[in-house]
């Protein structure tokens, strides 16, 4: 079977040596950067960097929210205690009003 | 009568919104002996707390209210933990092995349930908040057990999905509320019938004292609580089925026909 000859996305006159795993564009030797054993184009590396920064920020936010939830849980539980206490008091008041 | 092969996929909107409730009733009939003990375990502390609260209210003993309120609030964590186990069993019976374990998701489930309970209580001043809290607390366990996605994004996604299925979910909730009211009236009427007619007329038993007891606030509150327990058991199971029904409509998956099969009493899926 004949192999398909691909040309670099940025340099149409040059043969591609691989494909960027992020942009899926064929890239020549000059455009290719090997990072963690994988080929990336310059655009692909920039997109990868942006994705990792976003993921790191999301993880950081979620850690803050998780800590906030742990600290907030006793407050919410206390809120439920107060609510039930007030509701039971109201029920007694209503019973006493009926008797009167 | 169910066919040997699954029925053709029903397009969105054609299936009844109440079909998950029928499927839940079928599931209770088939697996009630397996699911009921878990529910009983879940509500033992709550029942004890409710007993203390009813006793304090009817005796008009304000000094006992902090203990009663504390027991009620504290029993909720135990109840939520075991209701999650119950819902996990229902989920496994519907879709087989789950991608993640409940042990890893317990913190998320309890956290969201706590927020949901806060919405249902303090949110009473705004009509929609208790409903949002009820749905969030009911669906969070099956939602989190679907995968390893993080708790808060899952909860947000769940609220968005529910927002897109408002009509369907509100019909289900209305049906459940009506069922509960009918059950409560039925229980009261049956009690009156037995105490006022059956026992004195057919069995010759003097029921004056029992009739007086039935008119007391303790009896009324106990009866209401007993009916609430029955509806809570049913809703805990039905919530998993409603969740998948909403997902089937949203994802266009084959889970809807599995609900239909369950409704028709076909245990093999």
Can you walk me through this structure?
The complex is a heterodimer of chains A (100) and B (269). Chain A is mainly alpha-helical and 100 residues long. Chain A has one domain. Helix content of chain A is 58%, strand content 10%. Chain A has one helix spanning 42-99, and strands at residues 18-19, 26-27, 33-35, 38-40. In chain A, the strands form two sheets. A two-stranded antiparallel sheet of chain A has the order 1-2. In chain A, strand 1 (18-19) and strand 2 form a beta hairpin. Chain A is rod-shaped. Chain B is mainly α. Helices cover 78% and strands 0% of the residues of chain B. Chain B has nine helices and no strands. Chain B has helices at 19-58, 65-95, 102-122, 128-144, 151-164, 166-202, 208-214, 217-251, 255-263. Chain B is globular and about 60 Å long. The two termini of chain B are 15 Å apart. Chains A and B meet through helix 1 of A and helix 1, helix 2 and helix 3 of B.
Q: Can you describe this structure in just a few lines?
A:
The complex is a heterodimer of chains A (100) and B (269). Chain A has 100 residues and is mainly alpha-helical.
Secondary structure class of chain A reads: mainly alpha
Structural class of chain B: mainly alpha
Count of separate structural domains of chain A: 1
N-to-C CA distance of chain A: 98 Å
Strand residue percentage of chain B: under 5%
Q: Which runs of chain A of at least 5 residues are low in confidence (pLDDT < 50)?
A: none
Share of helix of chain B, binned: over 70%
Biggest sheet: strand arrangement of chain A:
1-2
Q: Kindly report the average pLDDT value of chain B.
A: 83
Rg for CA atoms of chain B: 21 Å
Strand content of chain A: 5-15%
Biggest interface pair, residues each? A-B, 19 and 24 residues
What is the H-and-E element order of chain A?
A: EEEEH
Tell the overall outline of chain B: globular
For the biggest sheet of chain B, the summary is: none
Major β-sheet profile of chain A = 2 strands, antiparallel
Residue-averaged pLDDT of chain A: 84
Keywords (chain B): Membrane, Transmembrane, Transmembrane helix
Protein name (chain B): Glycerophosphoryl diester phosphodiesterase membrane domain-containing protein
Transmembrane segments (chain B): 36-54, 66-85, 169-199, 219-244
Keywords (chain A): Membrane, Transmembrane, Transmembrane helix
């Amino acid at each position: 079977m004949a192999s398909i000859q691909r040309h670099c996305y940025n340099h149409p006159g040059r043969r591609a040596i691989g494909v960027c795993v992020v942009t899926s564009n064929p890239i020549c030797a000059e455009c290719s950067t090997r990072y963690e054993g994988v080929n990336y184009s310059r655009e692909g590396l920039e997109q990868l960097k942006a994705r990792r920064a976003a993921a790191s920020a999301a993880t950081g936010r979620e850690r803050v929210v998780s800590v906030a939830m742990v600290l907030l849980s006793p407050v919410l539980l206390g809120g439920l205690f107060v609510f039930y206490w007030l509701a039971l008091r109201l029920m007694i008041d209503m019973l006493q009003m009926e008797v009167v | 009568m169910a066919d040997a092969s699954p029925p053709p996929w029903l397009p969105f909107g054609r299936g009844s919104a109440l079909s998950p409730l029928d499927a839940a009733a079928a599931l209770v009939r088939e697996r009630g002996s397996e699911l009921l003990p878990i529910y009983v375990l879940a509500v033992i502390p709550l029942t004890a707390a409710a007993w203390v609260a009813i006793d304090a209210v009817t005796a008009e003993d304000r000094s006992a209210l902090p203990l009663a309120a504390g027991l009620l609030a504290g029993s909720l964590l135990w109840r939520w933990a075991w209701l999650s186990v119950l819902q996990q069993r229902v989920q496994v019976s519907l879709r087989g092995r789950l991608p993640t374990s409940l042990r890893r998701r317990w913190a998320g489930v309890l956290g969201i349930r706590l927020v949901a309970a806060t919405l249902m209580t303090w949110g009473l001043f705004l009509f929609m908040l208790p409903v949002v809290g009820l749905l969030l607390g009911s669906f969070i366990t099956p939602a989190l057990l679907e995968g390893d996605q993080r708790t808060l994004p899952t909860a947000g996604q769940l609220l968005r999905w529910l927002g897109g299925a408002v009509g369907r979910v509100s019909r289900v909730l209305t049906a459940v509320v009506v069922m509960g009211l009918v059950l409560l009236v039925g229980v009261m009427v049956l009690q009156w019938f037995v105490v006022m007619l059956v026992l004195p007329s057919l069995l010759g038993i003097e029921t004056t004292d029992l009739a007086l007891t039935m008119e007391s606030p303790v009896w009324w509150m106990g009866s209401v609580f007993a009916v609430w327990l029955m509806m809570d058991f049913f809703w805990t199971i039905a919530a998993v089925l409603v969740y998948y029904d909403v997902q089937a409509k949203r994802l266009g998956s084959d889970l809807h026909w599995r609900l239909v099969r369950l409704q028709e009493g076909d245990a093999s899926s």
